[in-house]
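Title: Comparing notes on inverse folding

I've been comparing how different people in this forum approach sequence design from structure. To keep things fair, I'm posting one structure and asking everyone to reply with a full sequence. Here's the target:
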């Protein structure tokens, strides 16, 4: 290999290592955000349970509604008319 090829390879290696370092830090921050969101969701679930809302029943009804909506085999263009 020539000197120029070595430098180019070293630059590419440095670029990829830097990108991975940055992405790893971004992933850590994303995990922190996800944990906060999960805690907030659990708090709201607990609040709804305390108010007597049956979330399992609501979820089952939502699934039934989704299945009913999916049964339509018509193309989207026909539904818009």
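Reply #1:
Here's my take.
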């Amino acid at each position: 290999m020539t000197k120029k090829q070595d430098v180019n390879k070293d630059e590419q290696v440095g670029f990829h290592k830097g990108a991975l370092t940055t992405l790893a830090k971004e992933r850590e921050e994303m995990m922190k955000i996800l944990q906060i969101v999960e805690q907030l969701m659990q708090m709201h679930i607990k609040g709804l349970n305390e108010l007597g809302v049956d979330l399992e029943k609501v979820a089952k009804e939502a699934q039934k509604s989704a299945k009913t909506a999916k049964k339509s085999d018509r193309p989207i263009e026909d539904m818009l008319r």
